[in-house]
Write a structure and sequence with these properties.
Two copies of one chain form a homodimer. Chain A is built from 17 helices and nine strands. By secondary structure, chain A is α/β, with parallel strands linked by helices. The first copy, chain A, has a single domain, classed as TIM Barrel (Alpha-Beta Barrel), CATH 3.20.20. Chain A has a seven-stranded parallel beta sheet. In chain A, strands 2-3 form a two-stranded antiparallel ribbon. The first copy, chain A, starts with a helix and ends in a 7-residue tail after the last helix. Chains A and B meet through α11 and α13 of A and α11 and α13 of B.
C-alpha cells in the first residue's frame, strides 16, 4: 500500500520530499523544529485565547498555527502542530502541562501497565486526524506536511517518570530490574504508535518524523538491547505505507550508528556533533537532517550566515541533506533571524546547475 | 615544583595513583563520583545537623563525610567533600542551594563582570584548604585524596544562567553575541581556578579532578573555539605541580577527542558511550576513567556484576583504567550495591600475575 507517493504528486515545493526519497532537489530544503511555536507573535496571539491542550485539540487552530511559519519564514515543509503526549488519550492516562508535562499516576508496576487502555487512535485521537486534514486544506499543496509521534522509549519515559527527568531513574530502574515488564510496555506503546501514524498517513501527511527526544538517556548498549527493536518495527511499519520516515534520536551522538541501521529514510542529527562527523558515522550513502545549534539564532546575523553556509556545504557530503536546527527553535528567537537563516540556506544550497 | 610525588610516597593503597601515572597497578582501582553523599545513611545523619552550605564550610565535618565511603565501600581513593560552586565566594557572588544552586544576580553584562571580586582563594576559600588538611589527617595515608574544581565553562554557565539550565540560553547568547566578553569572563574564572587548585595541592591533595559538568551544552566546534584553550591552561598549570589531573567533560561523547588532546593524565568518560569506543576515540595510549551508568546500581546484584566485569575487561584495552561510574551515584542507591560493585571490580581487575 503506497499511499504516500500518489497523494503528494500535486505538491508545488517538492525539494523536501525529493531529498527524503534520495533524489537531487533544486536546492537544499529547510524546515525548523518547533517552527510553529512561541517565538512567533502570531502564535502567541492564538495562545492568548486557548491553552496549549485546547490548541492541540482544535483542528482549525492547529492548521492556522501550522501554516504560520510557511508564510513568515519560507520553509520547505510544514509540520503538524501537536504534541507527542496526545497519545496518552488512547492509553487513558491524564497529563497536564504546567507548562512541562505532569502525569497524575505514573506507570511503574504490572498493575499500572494492566490498567492502560487500548484505545483506537482513529477514535480517541480523531482530533489529530482532523487537524491533519485541516492542515492539508490550509496548505493547499504549497509545501508537504510532516506528521509525527514520539518514539516508543520517549513516550515510555514520560509514562514512567510522570514528567521530565534528569536522570530517568524510574525508567532505568524498570529497565534494569524488570526488563520483561519494560519490554511489554514498550511493545504496547509501539503497537499504538503504529496505528497512530497509519492514521496520520491516511489523513494525508506526506512524511513522518519520529522524535526519540530522550534516547540520550541511554547508553548504546542499553539502547540497542532494550529499545532499538521497537523503533525498527515502528519505522518499517510506517515505511510500508510509502511515506518517508525521519528518525531523530536526540541527546547522545554515540547512538547515531545504531539509529542509522534502523532503516529510516532520513537520520535526524542533533547539534552535539559536527555534521561532517555524523555523516562519516552513519555513512555517506545516508540522508541526514540537521543540525545547527538553535542558540546560534540568538547571535548576530553574520554569525548565523557563516555557520549556516558552512553547514549547507558539509551537508553536501551526504547522499542528501534536509537543513534543520539540531533541536527545537528557542522561544527567545527573533523571527527575523529565523527567516534570515532560511534565506541563507536557500542561497547557499542552490545546486550548481541552477546558477 | 613537584609537590605531588614526594607527598604521596607514604600512601598505602597506591593503585589509583599508579594508574594515573601510567604504571601497572596490582588491581584496577575504583572510586565513585559522589561517593560521599546522600545515598549513605551516615552522610544523611550528618546532614540532619547542618545544611549543605554549612557542611562545605566545616572542615572537620567535610573530613568525616569524605572518609565515610572509604570504610563502607573499600574504594581506592577519597574525594574531598565540597562543591564546585564554593569558588563563588572568591568572586563575591552569592549562591543558595534550594536544593539546586540559585545565583541572586546572574552575570551577563560588562558591568556584571566588572563587579566580580578578585578574591584570593587561599583566604576566601581557606575552609576548603583546611578541609583538605583535615581529610589527609583523617585518611591517615590509607588511600590518596582527590581534590577538585569545576571547569571554567561549567563555572561560567552557573554564573551566567544563575542556576541549572536546560538550553543554556543566556550562556550561549553571551558566547555568540559577545564572544570577547565571554572570553574575558572565562579567563578570569580560569585564573581563579589555577590559584584554587594550587592551594588544594599545597594543602595536600594527591590528584585533582576537573569537572566540566556542562561541557555537553556545546558542540565540538564551539567547545574547541571558545572553551578548550582555557581548560588546557588550567590542566597544564596544575600538572606543573606534579599531581595527576583527571579531566571529566560530561554530556557529549563527541567532545572526547578534543578533551583527550588537552594533556590531562586521565580522561573521564561518562556513561553515554561504550568504553571500548571511547578508548578507540581517545587512543589506547591514554588512561581513562569510567563509566558504568549509575542507574545500573538500582538493578539486581547479578546485573551489576555482569556489567562491571565487562567494563573492567574493556578497560584493559586502554593504557590504564580507573573504574568509576559514568556520572554521580544516585541518592536512591543501596550502599550494599555500591559495595558489591567495588568488590566485583577488585575481583575482576586483579592482574594475572597476582592470581
Amino acid at each position: 500500500m503506497d499511499l504516500g507517493s500518489e497523494l503528494t504528486m500535486a505538491i508545488e515545493n517538492r525539494a523536501f520530499l525529493q531529498v527524503c526519497r534520495g533524489e537531487k532537489p533544486e536546492r537544499t530544503p529547510v524546515w525548523i523544529m518547533r517552527q510553529a511555536g512561541r517565538y512567533l507573535p502570531e502564535y502567541r496571539e492564538v495562545r492568548k485565547r486557548v491553552s496549549f491542550e485546547q490548541l492541540c485539540r482544535t483542528p482549525e487552530l492547529c492548521a492556522q498555527v501550522t501554516v504560520q511559519p510557511i508564510d513568515r519564514l519560507g520553509v520547505d515543509a510544514a509540520i503538524l502542530f501537536s504534541d507527542i503526549l496526545v497519545v496518552f488519550d488512547a492509553l487513558g492516562v491524564d497529563v497536564r502541562f504546567e507548562p512541562g508535562p505532569q502525569v497524575e499516576h505514573p506507570v511503574r508496576s504490572h498493575a499500572d501497565v494492566a490498567r492502560l487502555r487500548d484505545g483506537d487512535p482513529d477514535v480517541e485521537l480523531v482530533y489529530v486526524m482532523d487537524a491533519v486534514r485541516a492542515c492539508k486544506r490550509a496548505l493547499a499543496d504549497r509545501v508537504p506536511l510532516i506528521g509525527f509521534c514520539g518514539a516508543p522509549f520517549t513516550i515510555l519515559s514520560y509514562l514512567v517518570e510522570g514528567g521530565s527527568s534528569r536522570d530517568f531513574e524510574h525508567t532505568k530502574r524498570l529497565m534494569y530490574a524488570e526488563p520483561v515488564l519494560f519490554g511489554r510496555l514498550l511493545e504496547r506503546i509501539t503497537e499504538l504508535l503504529c496505528k497512530y501514524l497509519a492514521g496520520q498517513v491516511r489523513a494525508g501527511v506526506d512524511a513522518v518524523q519520529i522524535f526519540d527526544s530522550w534516547a540520550g538517556a541511554l547508553s548504546p548498549f542499553d539502547y540497542r538491547m532494550h529499545v532499538l527493536p521497537h523503533v525498527r518495527r515502528l519505522v518499517s511499519h510506517v515505511r510500508s505505507f510509502g511515506v518517508p520516515v525521519i528518525l531523530f534520536a536526540r541527546g547522545n551522538a554515540s547512538l547515531l550508528e545504531l539509529v542509522a541501521g534502523v532503516g529510516a529514510d532520513v537520520i535526524g542529527v542533533d547539534w552535539s556533533i559536527e555534521l561532517a562527523h555524523a555523516i562519516v558515522s552513519v555513512g555517506d550513502d545516508k540522508i541526514v537532517q540537521g543540525n545547527l545549534d538553535p542558540a546560534i539564532l540568538l547571535g548576530p546575523p553574520e554569525l548565523i550566515e557563516t555557520r549556516a553556509r558552512a553547514l549547507v556545504r558539509a551537508g553536501k557530503c551526504a547522499r542528501g541533506h534536509v537543513f534543520n536546527l539540531g533541536h527545537g527553535i528557542l522561544p527567545a528567537t527573533d523571527p527575523a533571524h529565523a527567516r534570515h537563516l532560511v534565506e541563507v540556506v536557500h542561497d547557499e544550497g542552490t545546486y550548481e546547475r541552477d546558477r
